[in-house]
């Protein structure tokens, strides 16, 4: 850095904050480190007693914090995202549409372990709305080696396969079939209070319920209905009830007998331990078509938030859920049943 006269500072970059003190009114930085001085700024700087300024002197091989911030932004920003202009080495990313946020956590950790730079994000695998803040980047020093930024970019691209660290997967329209099971509901002994809960949760997304049937505990009828809904074009089939290990709870067997690939029967989430997830893949009109089949345990009917709330956004974004990912939900998979629910702004489902 070098010392120059304030009257000659137009276009120069400040090396430190400039504080303005007005008794009883303010004591704050009137200009921040990294600010590029304009002609209009000069009278203000003189008014706070700055006849001279320490400014950044461009050096070969060094980047100003805002220039380096552009590199971090390029590493992070995926499609369907908007960005802010660089300010004090910071750039923020926001969602340009509703969707599911995905984060390459290994690459994110790699950048943050590199030193002199950081990326902070919200949790991945959760739904976001248009305009939501997704991430913020920051270069720590005022200037940083250009070679260092090239190295972190190369290493990150190697980890991600050339993709950005953040990905926003838009939600898609889904046709849904619902199979309600249980002798007590089928014979009218109790009212079906499960289906309205499912319909309400589906209404948060672009969905259409194209079929709904109610059966007793007959696995063959349930299997036939699932396959029939798939034939009708259901992208999602949701089965409610009959998900425990009791001998007369036959929904898991009915799902298995469709020939669908069972991802997991059981998940380390409370509420939601008896959850079942399966994928039914087939060729239709020369294209591979997939229907997601979910068996929902009874807790989804009465608990505010469950495993269903963690998996449904991923299904809506065509984001395949693996058995390993379900297993990883154990840490953070315990809902605390807070008197006032703040989900998703809480720790539920945010393990690793």
From TrEMBL:
For this protein, the record's InterPro entries field holds:
MoaB/Mog-like_dom_sf, MoaB/Mog_dom, MoeA-like
- Which Pfam families does the UniProt entry name for this protein? MoCF_biosynth
Has keyword DNA repair?
no
Q: In which pathway does it act?
A: Cofactor biosynthesis; molybdopterin biosynthesis
Question: Enzyme class, one word?
Answer: transferase
Question: What cofactors are annotated for this protein?
Answer: Mg(2+)
| Nucleotide-binding listed as a keyword | no
Which UniProt keywords are given for this protein, alphabetically ordered? Magnesium, Membrane, Metal-binding, Molybdenum, Molybdenum cofactor biosynthesis, Transferase, Transmembrane, Transmembrane helix
Domain MoaB/Mog: from-to ranges:
177-317
Q: Membrane-spanning residues where? A: 262-280
Q: What is its EC number?
A: 2.10.1.1
What this protein catalyses is: adenylyl-molybdopterin + molybdate = Mo-molybdopterin + AMP + H(+)
CDD domains recorded for this chain?
Answer: MoeA_like (cd03522)
Q: Per its database record, what is this protein's job?
A: Catalyzes the insertion of molybdate into adenylated molybdopterin with the concomitant release of AMP.
User: Which family is this sequence assigned to?
Assistant: Belongs to the MoeA family.
The protein, known as: Molybdopterin molybdenumtransferase
The opening ranks of the lineage are: Bacteria, Bacillati, Bacillota, Clostridia, Lachnospirales
